[in-house]
Amino acid sequence: MYLLLDLAFPAKRNSKLIAITLLSVLSGFGGAFIIVVLNQAVQHDPAGWVEYFLFAIFASLYGGRVVRIKLTEISNRIVLEKRTSLIEKLLNASYEKIEKVDKGNIRVCLNHDTETISRFAGEAVSIIRNSVTLLVSLLYLATLNITALLVSVAVFGIAIAFYYITSRRAGKDWTKNRDIQNLFYKYIDDLIYGYKELSMKKAKRADFQNDILQSCQINFETRVRGENRFTNVFLIGELLTFSIIGMVIFIFPLLFVLEPAFLLSYLLIFLYINGQISSLLNSIPQVVMMRISWARIKETIEQIENIKVNEQEREDEIEAVPASIRLQLHDVGYEYENEEDTPFSIGPVNCEFRSGEITFITGGNGSGKSTLAKIITGLYTPHQGYVTFNGMPVSQKYLSEQFTAVFSDFYLFEKLYGVSYQEKKQQLDQYLKLLQIDTKLTVDHGKFSTVALSTGQRKRLALLISYMEDAPIILFDEWAADQDPEFRKFFYYELLPELRQRGKCVIAITHDEHYFHMADHHLKMEFGQLKLQVLEGVGAEGH
Ligand SMILES: Nc1ncnc2c1ncn2[C@@H]1O[C@H](COP(=O)(O)OP(=O)(O)OP(=O)(O)O)[C@@H](O)[C@H]1O
């Protein structure tokens, strides 16, 4: 029993399991007692055994019931704990780490793997009960005839060995089956988020359908192949059982002097034990699947922990956010890790950003503007150089907290997370009007009535959220790109200067040449280098 539990969950075991195991043992004894009582009743006076029979049924069923209820709670708690710890790990890991984790795998872990291990309760109950019943029944058999016991143990031993070997082979198919689901989940994302593109072109749809159905086909094949491996083994087990029964009934009487009553007893016990063995063996595929899912969850957690990023574990000495901010990059460099011969790198970059100033970062596509933005906002840790905040080196986490950002690939949550919206109701209404989205949506208890808006309106809503976050540094990554000319003008001539006036440190990545004069500083990226640095002076005189 211990080994079977250990096989399913090699890591930490719940102490409650000991109590549950004892109850299961009681239930298993009850199960074995049934056959002992029946056998005695058949051979002696049945009337004298009725109360024992009822007691055995009670012990078996009641023990089983209590154990099932307890284990259902425990196994679902395991699911809850695994989900919670995975979510905690994900939410506490740096962006840089999560960017490197296979998103499909995260989904399969949180969904499929945790569900698979929730089947633990049912399986554990039957494994423990059947094991005990089997053990006690075998011991009982030993008291009747030791040769009969040895023959039975040999047959069951062979069947178990076949199952063990098969489960290892099936495990390979099921591991493949589990891993193909990572890809399948990615296809589901493509199907949902890329449906616009797919629905327009028949050829595109057909190609995509081919790929997604191929992953479904592999899923089907590996699952069926794994399960079918057991079908043959199951048949071999059945064949062995019937051979033994045949041997005992037809051949043993020719070799030994045996009472017909003994043969009947043996047959009764053997068939009963065979039932326990069968359900025990049938639990093995479930255990193998649970084990794969358990291992994948563990691996994913370890993967998140082990991804090497240059994170600095630093105690930040600056506590309250100062009124005036000076953010400086000192010889900052960063290089992407990928298979390319010359992976893209930026730096060394030296620059600074201050409160009450607007800085524009410009440059061609792929010049490294967004990468620089991710370093500035603390999402990436520089591989070289360092960043200081008011002259003090700070951690990336601290840096991120000082920012609110609207990235070009921003995500709109349907709720205002991390904002005390109750206290800012008036402000919220004011911004909704200012950004001209007050007729499009309402905000109730921090929840937006809709996020189904036009691209420009979605960006305005993202801007509203960053206004509400009210951080000292604001970063816009090509924010105005999707705005109409009127609103673009409003953004550069009204919104940005207003933020500057409020003492915010404003950083905007932009391609809008017409508005370059609105910045106090202009940084230009070229092939990962900061090429042109016009410091001071442009200001808002062109307004
Ligand atoms: N996660 C990543 N892993 C590896 N390489 C990346 C990654 N993100 C970006 N790159 C590479 O870094 C280079 C710079 O990308 P970046 O997004 O910083 O450019 P950009 O100046 O913001 O471009 P654009 O104006 O098109 O938004 C690109 O050539 C890209 O191949």
Quickly describe the structure:
With 543 residues, the chain is α/β, with parallel strands linked by helices. It is 62% helix and 12% strand.
Sheet of most strands = 6 strands, mixed
Number of domains: 2
C-alpha end-to-end distance: 80 Å
Residue share in helix:
55-70%
CATH architecture of the largest domain: Up-down Bundle
Report the count of strand segments.
Answer: 12
Q: Round the Cα radius of gyration to an integer and report it.
A: 34 Å
Separate helix tally: 15
Q: Looking at the structure, what is the overall shape?
A: elongated
Q: What ligand molecules are bound, each kind once?
A: adenosine-5'-triphosphate
Strand content is 5-15%
Q: What is the CATH homologous superfamily assignment of the largest domain?
A: ABC transporter type 1, transmembrane domain
Low-pLDDT runs: 537-543
CATH class bucket of the largest domain: Mainly Alpha
What integer is the average pLDDT? 83
Structural class: alpha/beta
Strand order of the largest sheet: 6-9-10-3-11-12
Query: Secondary-structure element order, as H and E?
Result: HHHHHHHHHHEEEHEEHEHEEHEHEEE
CATH topology of the largest domain: ABC transporter transmembrane region fold
